[in-house]
């Protein structure tokens, strides 16, 4: 098992210089900036692995050099207030379009620290209905829907107040009894001051050190989770207190509208070799095809069970086909080379570039898995690398203007081209129930995050009078208005010239009626007077987020405990421009693998309408 950073580190004044290492930090992109705080830091001329009372940020609207230390001229920092969780190693940064919520599940849930990037203010916000949230002491999965201001956290577990007792030769022994996690929903749709925990959603899968991502499918979106450890499964290790790695084929889907969990079995796009093996402490990011006909969840790094070490592999999960592809770049020199990285944090910029910030870098095999970036600065192991998700290659810098186009590896598998236009929009064996068909038949409308905010106190420009001269109340009285005199003389001369011209037109020119006017030269056909041609551009068609296909022909409700019939099912809606061969696409016979709905517990309350 990997080393988990929970020990206390000395809190020292901020070191100056370039940033070499950051581990277990909060990370989020808000307002065009990459923010990070808490965790531990190493600078070029400071101490190793120290705490920082700072909130750091990098402006992503400018180019950022990757695969090097982060220069002191590239990042900015501001002091955090007293009480801010600088000692946290949870690294959970959930966010809206304007505000980051620094959530540490191991401390009180009645209050949470926020930073509003628009007003540039910290605030400790009291959370309403905090009794709905159990205290959880290990990291699960978290996701944000910035457009609605609703955030999610689930998949961890906590120590139960009840203890199981095991009788042995040495008497009664206490054994930890983990409690299955509740889906925790933080609603900030009414503003930072009215944030509250929502009831409902029930219990979900344990995603200890796994991932959770918001994806724009269904009426209100879905959450997709996978990986990590199941603390209730002890089948993989001799130690009964050690949980088992989750199978990366098990994909958990939470439909926000119905508040139900489903499990879908993923496959390998080109066979089982494309399926990543069990891992924890990896990071992920989401990209959408330009026409929203497919979505991709790209993952990097993590700690692998198979080689008992960190990994440098890159995989992508394609939705809605639920197919894995191994897309590890052939050239790793701009990545982590032959080393692996775990506990890094991923942040996606414009769908096209996945920033990997921080984490522990170490050898990627059991014989050599020693950390190499937790000591002194080492430029060979940079804190920030950037993956171009349009081609799945590491890049030398973040290009702020790069837009997303669907990678060739993906459209060769599901059809279409760089714009999307996916021809396959379901798993190879089809969905095994109509509920999932309905969810993946439509998408929520795309709403891009703001990349900048209006200046809160813009510098006023000098006011001007009607004549355009500066309004200076301290100026001395002026002399005669020379400009006015000259203007009057010029105006009089022009008036006389106008009268003479009219006399010539009516009395002289009209005496020559046989003289023909010279015709004007017509413009060339199809050429605009300006000489500028309109550029062709591709517009992304959008579904309205509410249209739903009809139920299956059998009209039966979904039963999560039995396989539903595949016959008579309506095809999923297609976006315009999806060309199909004559007769449509032949449906692949079902694999017979059932899809089960997880117990969601009690359903209480409703999420706010989008």
UniProtKB/TrEMBL annotation:
Residues 452-480, 542-610 are annotated as: Disordered. Residues 601-610 have a biased composition (Basic and acidic residues). InterPro entries: Gal_Oxase/kelch_b-propeller (IPR011043), Immunoregulatory_rcpt-like (IPR051694), Kelch-typ_b-propeller (IPR015915). The chain crosses the membrane at residues 482-507. It comes from Arthrobotrys musiformis. One of its GO terms (cellular component) is cell periphery. This is Kelch repeat protein. Its main location: membrane. Keywords: Membrane, Transmembrane, Transmembrane helix. It is found in: Membrane. Residues 452-470 have a biased composition (Low complexity). It is a single-pass membrane protein.
């Amino acid at each position: 098992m990997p080393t988990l950073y929970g020990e206390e580190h000395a809190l020292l004044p901020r070191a100056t210089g370039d940033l070499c290492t950051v581990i277990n930090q909060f990370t989020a992109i808000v307002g065009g900036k990459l923010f990070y705080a808490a965790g531990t830091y190493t600078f070029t001329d400071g101490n190793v692995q120290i705490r920082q009372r700072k909130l750091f940020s990098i402006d992503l609207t400018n180019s950022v050099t990757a695969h090097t230390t982060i220069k002191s001229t590239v990042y900015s920092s501001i002091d955090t207030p007293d009480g801010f969780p600088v000692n946290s190693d949870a690294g959970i940064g959930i966010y809206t379009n304007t505000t980051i919520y620094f959530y540490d599940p191991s401390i009180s849930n009645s209050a949470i620290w926020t930073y509003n990037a628009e007003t540039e203010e910290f605030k400790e916000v009291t959370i309403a209905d905090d009794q709905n949230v159990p205290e959880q002491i290990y990291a699960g999965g978290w996701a944000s829907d910035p457009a609605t201001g609703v955030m999610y956290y689930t998949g961890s577990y906590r120590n139960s107040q009840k203890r199981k007792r095991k009788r042995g030769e040495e008497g009664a022994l206490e054994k930890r009894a983990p409690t299955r996690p509740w889906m925790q929903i933080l609603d900030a749709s009414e503003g930072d001051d009215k944030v509250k925990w929502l009831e409902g959603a029930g219990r979900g899968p344990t995603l200890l050190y796994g991932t959770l991502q918001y994806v724009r499918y269904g009426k209100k979106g879905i959450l997709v989770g996978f990986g990590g450890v199941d603390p209730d499964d002890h089948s993989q290790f001799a130690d009964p207190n050690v949980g088992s790695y989750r199978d990366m084929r098990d994909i958990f889907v939470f439909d926000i509208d119905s508040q139900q969990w489903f499990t879908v079995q993923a496959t390998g796009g080109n066979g089982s070799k494309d399926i990543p093996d069990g891992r924890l402490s990896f990071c992920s990011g989401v990209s959408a095809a330009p026409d929203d006909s497919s979505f991709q969840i790209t993952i990097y790094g993590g700690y692998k069970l198979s080689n008992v070490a960190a990994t440098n592999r890159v995989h992508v999960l394609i939705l809605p086909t639920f197919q894995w592809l191994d897309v590890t770049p052939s050239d790793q020199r701009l990545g982590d080379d032959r080393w692996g990285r775990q506990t890094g944090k991923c942040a996606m910029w414009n769908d096209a570039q996945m920033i990997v910030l921080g984490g522990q870098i170490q050898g990627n095999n059991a014989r050599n898995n020693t950390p190499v970036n937790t000591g002194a600065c080492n430029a060979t192991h940079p804190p920030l690398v950037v993956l171009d998700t349009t081609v799945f290659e590491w890049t030398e810098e973040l290009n702020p203007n790069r837009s997303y186009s669907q990678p060739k590896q993906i459209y060769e598998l599901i059809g279409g081209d760089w714009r999307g236009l996916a021809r396959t929009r379901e798993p190879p064996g089809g969905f095994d129930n109509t509920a999932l068909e309905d969810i993946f038949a439509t998408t929520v409308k795309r709403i891009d995050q703001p990349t900048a905010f209006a200046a809160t106190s813009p510098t006023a420009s000098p006011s001007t009078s009607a004549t355009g001269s500066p309004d200076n109340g301290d100026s001395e009285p002026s002399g005669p208005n020379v400009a006015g005199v000259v203007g009057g003389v010029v105006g009089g001369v022009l008036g006389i010239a106008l009268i003479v011209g009219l006399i010539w037109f009516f009395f002289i020119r009209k005496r020559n009626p046989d003289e023909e006017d010279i015709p004007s030269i017509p413009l060339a056909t199809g050429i605009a007077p300006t000489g500028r041609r309109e550029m062709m551009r591709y517009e992304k068609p959008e579904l309205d987020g509410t249209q739903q296909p009809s139920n299956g022909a059998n009209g039966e409700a979904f039963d999560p405990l039995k396989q539903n019939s595949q016959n008579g099912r309506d095809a999923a809606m297609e976006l315009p421009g999806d060309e199909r061969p004559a007769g449509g696409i032949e449906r692949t016979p079902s694999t017979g693998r059932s899809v089960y709905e997880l117990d969601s517990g009690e359903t209480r309350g409703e999420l706010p309408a989008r």
